[in-house]
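Record type: ASSEMBLY
Status: queued
Input:
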Amino acid sequence: MIITEKKDRKHLLEKIKEYNSFFLLGCSECASLCGTGGEPELVEMKELLESEGKKVTGTFVAKTGCQVLGTKVEIKKNFKSEADEAECILVMSCGAGTQSAVDIYKDKPVYPTNDSLFLGNMTRMQIFDERCSLCGECILEQTGGICPVTACPKGILNGPCGGTNEGKCEVSPDVDCAWTRIYNRLKAINRLDDMKEISKPKNWSAHKKPMTLNVREKKEEGKK
Amino acid sequence: MSFKEALNSGKFTVTAEAGPPKGTDIKKIVHECELLKGKVDAVNVTDNQSAVMRISSTSFCKIILDMGLEPILQMTCRDRNRIGLQSDLLGASILGIKNVLCMTGDHPNAGDHKEAKTVYDIESAQLLRVVDGLNNGKDMMGNDLQGATDFFQGAVVTPEANPIEPQLMKFEKKIDAGANFFQTQAIYDIDKFKEFMSHARKFPVKVLAGLVLLKSAGMANFMNKFVPGINVPAELIGELKEAGKEKALDAGIDIMARHIKQLKDENICDGVHIMAIGAEDKVPEIMERAGLL
Ligand code: SF4
Ligand code: SF4
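Status: finished
Output:
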């Protein structure tokens, strides 16, 4: 899921100070789990804005904020007048959710209330770890299922750098060395040979921004 | 005799490290390099060591080349993508630089520009392959070069890395990728180093033992605590302490000279790489006490 964190509230209020009325848009998926854009956070934001003398015309937690069409239908059906009335839409999900709202409200300012941090695994309630950085060409099969592109601060292939230190990374004693983890894992599953071959330089062009994917078109092509 | 010829001839080869300064005033380091002339086989020039921004390694290599010393160009993967690395290697080649030490490079987190974008497009083993390709007239994409390079390429290894197994796997990968020589992380325990060498001797590569000059007991304790793969034994720290503040550097020089002598006399490795870290002017004295001059 997409991990988000609330922006500093003082900073946020400064950015939106010229507007007087807001519609708050949350998301029931990742942002709710992160505690940045679910029902309680929307209530909190409403109270904050009202305490600053601002008007909140309506609040809504979208089902899936990054789904542009679905979110548009939901808002237009249930909150059209409230959203239309607001001078500014405040989006309390991730950067993708914010840009759904930009698509929906072409003539209204849209502001994010959160910083989007990474694609994360939730290891326990509201504890998140970055495991994959969406590089576009997965190599987990070579590395015992642990991603060096993400877990190693240098993102290097081919084994530990000179900074590896008793299982920890040179960058911080709080970070485990990805390559020591990979080594231990390959040993445990009896696949150390996977580490012996020199990995070719990674094809970074597999993630060329901005990425798009049209599954429907691909399916059509497949039929031909 | 060139550095490559020295190593291949079986001569006990000596290199010293030079770290270019931050800023354009190079009087001090040029003077220190002058002192090394006719003494060491090559001078190894660091590439923004510890991720602290300084004069480019290539530029300073050219300066010492013109002084009549043989440079080893350290090249890290931290700051340049594959286009930059290959282009700089071709550039170094036309300047007459013959030796390159391929490294991944310290993370910017350690240095003085912590907000820098890290590159690490490739890493040390892959860079060795790139150098091998350039030597064979091909770039990384297999395109023909108009004129190949003629580099003698090496790499680094940490004999006391913990855990050691992945380090040794990487050591072998680097050999497969074309490393001709290795420079080690600083070693202080010769018996432990012998164990590493008995493994390394199975491969057709030359090994220069890395030696960092100890200047005080405090420095030794600091390295033990903070530098991965460095273990200064308690006896040596005792020796430095006993010497007292005034004489600690002298004791450090003695320790290094003694180690060099033992490495050479017992034919443990193919040479040494001396890192004097700020006391480069002491290198001739170290060599003298080791009986090399
Ligand atoms: S290799 Fe790429 S796709 Fe696979 S886990 Fe790592 S970043 Fe994600
Ligand atoms: S210590 Fe390990 S995790 Fe850290 S940069 Fe080096 S190889 Fe990567």
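Annotation: The mean pLDDT of chain A is 96.
Annotation: Chain A has two domains: 2-118, 137-200.
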